């Protein structure tokens, strides 16, 4: 007999029990059927859908911050989360409440009938239901996996965004970048523009855009950015309006620790919005962008040590390379430091470690705390094959404590990089065991507090 869950934790446990997150099901038939049944697929708002291998979350955050600064009511749906499930659904930049999510879960459970939604399909339809209950001007949706068959793709976008293409999730999306690009291009809609955030164009994207008569705005062709010669903290954007006129925005502030490619992509997408976004709102919005786990900087006090920490959810080779560039860009000298690392076993960890080796003094390897995690022994053995100094740790907490206590507090920051559960556990560790002096990213938690004396 079904006993209705009483709170969000119970709902998530219930969904995980009957339809585990590991049960990844690609296809739109069930989501579209249930979505139409509860009338959430035709949202009365301008819709951006963001796909890509890397940079999706940052692009969503930049779009959201600028649109809010311009005075619009904005809803967003992203995945996965780091600190709390509520991070996935935001209304005007604020996480929705447990109560709203639970009511959507309850409604879907009672109205979906015999349709067997997967975990991600269920929470995605719930997110659509949450968003539909607000008078939103704009909705920004992040594709979870691929594009063509991802549940988020059940809603038609007004502007499609593909941030980047790289090898990841090959067991679902294909073993070449061209095959992966084909899956990402599945978000394109007839005559609705595409903003493409990379310079390498793929035949499958060109083919799909041609078939659907999609106007394509690509980096290096329709838009690009330059840095300011007189000030390293400023940059310039060059792009096109929806009427095809050239537009230059100069002396913009750098978004906090985020890749400029994503900011440039977001600004081009904003030029295709129904209204003209004021340049003042773009500049001010860039200063408001904060996102957990993306080149996020903390200063923490753990026992006698006060150190800087940089966390990032880079979990494929391309993301790691981006991360290293961002870290080195923000420092006068190249980083050479301790790295805490854990990753899923289906990731290309060998290429990730080869890239991270360039900035590592020692690796502290552990498990990501998930059934998909690569074993500590496999990580350590590969590092030993490369003659890279490392130590094995049975828990993330132990790896963090050991890495911190071995740091020279007056020199380099501690790097924590890998799959989402590692970053989630690291933030919880600092919150529970450290005095956090400063963080570069906003959070709804009380992560920041005065250092202990």
Layout of secondary structure:
Layout lengths: L7 H11 L10 H9 L8 E6 L4 H14 L4 E4 L11 E3 L2 E2 L2 H14 L7 H14 L5 E5 L16 E4 L7 H4 L3 H8 L9 E3 L6 H9 L4 E3 L5 E4 L6 E7 L5 E8 L6 H11 L8 H9 L8 E7 L2 E8 L4 H13 L7 E6 L6 H8 L3 E6 L10 H10 L4 E3 L3 H10 L8 E5 L1 H14 L1 E5 L14
Parallel strand pairs: 1-5, 1-6, 2-5, 6-7, 7-8, 13-17, 14-15, 14-17, 15-16
Antiparallel strand pairs: 2-3, 3-4, 9-10, 10-11, 12-13, 12-18
Helix pairs in contact: 2-5, 3-9, 3-10, 4-5, 7-8, 11-12
Pick out its properties.
453 residues, UDP-N-acetylmuramoyl-L-alanine:D-glutamate ligase, Protein-Tyrosine Phosphatase, Chain A, 2 domains, 7-stranded mixed sheet
What does this entry show, briefly?
With 453 residues, the chain is an alpha/beta fold. Helix content is 35%, strand content 20%.
Written description of the protein model:
By secondary structure, the protein is an alpha/beta fold. It folds into 2 domains: 8-287, 3-Layer(aba) Sandwich (UDP-N-acetylmuramoyl-L-alanine:D-glutamate ligase); 296-439, Protein-Tyrosine Phosphatase, Chain A (Alpha-Beta Complex). The chain is 35% helix and 20% strand. The chain has helices spanning 8-18, 29-37, 56-69, 98-111, 119-132, 170-173, 177-184, 203-211, 260-270, 279-287, 317-329, 349-356, 376-385, 396-405, 420-433; strands at residues 46-51, 74-77, 89-91, 94-95, 138-142, 159-162, 194-196, 216-218, 224-227, 234-240, 246-253, 296-302, 305-312, 337-342, 360-365, 390-392, 414-418, 435-439. The chain has an 8-stranded mixed sheet, sandwiched between helices. A 7-stranded mixed sheet has the order 16-15-14-17-13-12-18, with helices on both faces. Strands 9-10-11 form a 3-stranded antiparallel sheet, with helices on one face. Helix 3 packs across helix 9 (260-270), helix 3 (56-69) packs across helix 10 (279-287) and helix 7 (177-184) runs parallel beside helix 8. The N and C termini lie far apart (54 Å).
